[in-house]
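hiii so um. not sure if this is the right channel but i have a protein structure encoded as tokens and i wanna go backwards to a sequence. like what aa goes where. can anyone help
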């Protein structure tokens, strides 16, 4: 990734705290959209100053199309898209609100579509691109009380595979990863830490992502790769 321009969404989040340092270690020039300045400060605490200078922060709402289009225009060229934005809530289907259902799709699927749409336009213009999205084990193996999340993440798999098919014959690839429970502070707070040693670490996911955007993975297209840890 040395010298490549990388759009890394969710780079200040729990998963991003593991992925961002790994991407910077590859020599990339990274743009990270953010919502809250405190998240930038949290990332600054763990990134060496010499690497931090290769991050460009842009305030943005990735649920808004005009905002996403603006981010891409600021970057100028996108070589690599790593889309980490997502989240989940739980509830039985017959008790789950339609508002919450729509929010799951907005956060997990719609942001993925918008980031992919505008990054892909840039990639097609200059004939090169690597796209990695984050789905979930629940997207491939839907679970009770996770109907909305499972459906949205299944959509991420379908979207990514469709893009991979559309870009056959080009130097653009699109793949998705399927983590199980990720060992982040927010997940430990929500679910307890007693089983966290079995969850997949953000740093492990980062290594898979870095491989998928490398030249070694140039022939991998439309893959949905399980990263389950010991769950």
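sure thing!! here u go:
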């Amino acid at each position: 990734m040395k010298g490549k321009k990388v759009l890394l969404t969710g780079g200040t989040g729990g998963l991003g705290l593991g992925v961002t340092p790994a991407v910077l270690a590859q020599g990339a020039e990274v743009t990270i959209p953010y919502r809250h300045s405190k998240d930038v400060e949290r990332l600054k605490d763990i990134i060496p100053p010499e690497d931090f200078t290769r991050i460009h922060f842009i305030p943005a709402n990735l649920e808004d199309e005009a905002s996403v289009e603006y981010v891409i225009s600021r970057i100028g060229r996108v070589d690599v898209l790593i889309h980490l934005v997502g989240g989940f809530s739980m509830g039985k289907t017959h008790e789950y609100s339609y508002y919450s259902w729509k929010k799951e799709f907005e956060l997990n699927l719609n942001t993925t579509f918008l980031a992919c749409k505008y990054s892909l336009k840039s990639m097609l213009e200059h004939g090169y691109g690597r796209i990695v999205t984050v789905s979930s084990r629940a997207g491939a193996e839907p679970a009770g009380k996770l109907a909305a999340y499972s459906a949205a993440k299944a959509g991420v798999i379908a979207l990514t595979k469709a893009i991979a098919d559309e870009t056959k014959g080009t130097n653009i690839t699109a793949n998705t990863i399927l983590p199980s429970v990720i060992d982040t502070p927010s997940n430990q707070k929500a679910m307890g830490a007693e089983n966290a040693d079995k969850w997949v670490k953000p740093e492990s996911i980062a290594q898979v992502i870095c491989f998928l955007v490398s030249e070694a993975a140039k022939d991998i297209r439309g893959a949905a790769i399980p990263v389950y840890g010991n769950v």
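oh and The chain is about 45% helix and 15% strand.
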